[in-house]
C-alpha cells in the first residue's frame, strides 16, 4: 500500500503577509512607472524637462547648497505686494529672506518648497522672527496680490508674495539666474497652463545680499542649519 503524500510545510503567517506586501508594492511601482512613461510619450518630452533648475553664474552647478561670500547685492526692483502697494526685496533689510520664484497653480515644486520654508522657520525657534519667507510669482496673469496672499499664507501666515512681470524678471535675472516661460509643449492640465521656471531657493541676508542658493531637493535640515549659521553670524556682528 502506498504511503499518503507528506503535507508540505506552510510558511508562517508573518512571512505570507510580508510576501503579499512585497507583491503589492512591486505592482504599484510598476503602475507608477507605466504612468510616467505614458505621460512622457504623450507630451513628447521627458517629464524632467518641464522644469529646468538654474543657478546664478557664480553658483556651483550640482551643489545642493551654494554659499556666496561675499554676497551679491540684490537689485532694488519694485513689484506689487500682498502687503499692499509696491515692495522691493531691498525693503526688507534687517530681515534674512527665504526667496522662491514660483506660481500658485504649480502642481509640485512650489508647494513642496513653500512647505520646506515653513518647516525651516518652525525649526529655527526664536531665530525665526528674523526670517521672512517670500514667493515671487512668475505668473502675473493669474497671480494677483490677492491670489498670492491666499496661497502663501496657507504655509505660514507671515509669508509674503510679490508679483513679477517680465520686466521685473529681466532685472532680477543677472543676480538670481531666474528663468520662466510657458511650458514648451503647451500642455494644459487640470490646473491650466504650466510654467517652466527656476526651482532653486535663495537666501538674502539682512544687508540685502544674496548669500545662499539651495538646489531643489536640498534636505530641510541642511537649509535650517545654513540659515541658523547665517543668523547667528548676523547677531554676533550686530
Overall description:
The chain is of the alpha+beta class. The protein folds into two domains: 14-44; 48-237, Glutaredoxin (3-Layer(aba) Sandwich), CATH 3.40.30.10. It contains five helices and twelve strands. It is globular.
| Number of DSSP helical runs | 5
Helix content: 25-40%
How large a portion of the residues is in β-strands, by DSSP E? Answer: 15-25%
Give, in spatial order, the strands making up the sheet with the most strands: 1-12-11-4-5-6
| Number of domain modules | 2
CATH architecture of the largest domain: 3-Layer(aba) Sandwich
State the order of secondary-structure elements, H for helix, E for strand.
HEEEEHEHEHEEEEEEH
**CATH third-tier fold name of the largest domain:** Glutaredoxin
Mean pLDDT: 78
For this structure, what is the CATH homologous superfamily of the largest domain? Glutaredoxin
Distance between the termini: 98 Å
Rg calc: 24 Å
Largest sheet: 6 strands, mixed
Query: Which structural class fits the helix and strand makeup?
Result: alpha+beta
Overall body shape = globular
CATH class of the largest domain: Alpha Beta
Would you identify the regions where 5 or more consecutive residues have pLDDT less than 50?
Answer: 13-19, 21-25, 27-61
The total of beta strands comes to 12
Amino acid at each position: 500500500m502506498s504511503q499518503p503524500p507528506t503535507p508540505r510545510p506552510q510558511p508562517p503567517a508573518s512571512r505570507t503577509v510580508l510576501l503579499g506586501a512585497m507583491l503589492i508594492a512591486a505592482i504599484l511601482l510598476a503602475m507608477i512607472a507605466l504612468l510616467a512613461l505614458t505621460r512622457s510619450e504623450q507630451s513628447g518630452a521627458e517629464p524632467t524637462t518641464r522644469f529646468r533648475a538654474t543657478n546664478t553664474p557664480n553658483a556651483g552647478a550640482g551643489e545642493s547648497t551654494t554659499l556666496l561670500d561675499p554676497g551679491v547685492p540684490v537689485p532694488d526692483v519694485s513689484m506689487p505686494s500682498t502687503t499692499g502697494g509696491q515692495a522691493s526685496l531691498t525693503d526688507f533689510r534687517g530681515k534674512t529672506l527665504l526667496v522662491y520664484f514660483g506660481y500658485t497653480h504649480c502642481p509640485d515644486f512650489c508647494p513642496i518648497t513653500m512647505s520646506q520654508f515653513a518647516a525651516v522657520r518652525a525649526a529655527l525657534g526664536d531665530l525665526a522672527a528674523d526670517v521672512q519667507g517670500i514667493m515671487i510669482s512668475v505668473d502675473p496673469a493669474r497671480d494677483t496680490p490677492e491670489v498670492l496672499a491666499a496661497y502663501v499664507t496657507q504655509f505660514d501666515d507671515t509669508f509674503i508674495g510679490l508679483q513679477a512681470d517680465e520686466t521685473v524678471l529681466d532685472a532680477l535675472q543677472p543676480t538670481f539666474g531666474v528663468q520662466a516661460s510657458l511650458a514648451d509643449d503647451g500642455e494644459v492640465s487640470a490646473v491650466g497652463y504650466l510654467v517652466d521656471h527656476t526651482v532653486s531657493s535663495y537666501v538674502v541676508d539682512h544687508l540685502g545680499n544674496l548669500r545662499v542658493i539651495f538646489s531643489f531637493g536640498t534636505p530641510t535640515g541642511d537649509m535650517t542649519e545654513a540659515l541658523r549659521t547665517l543668523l547667528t553670524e548676523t547677531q554676533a556682528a550686530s
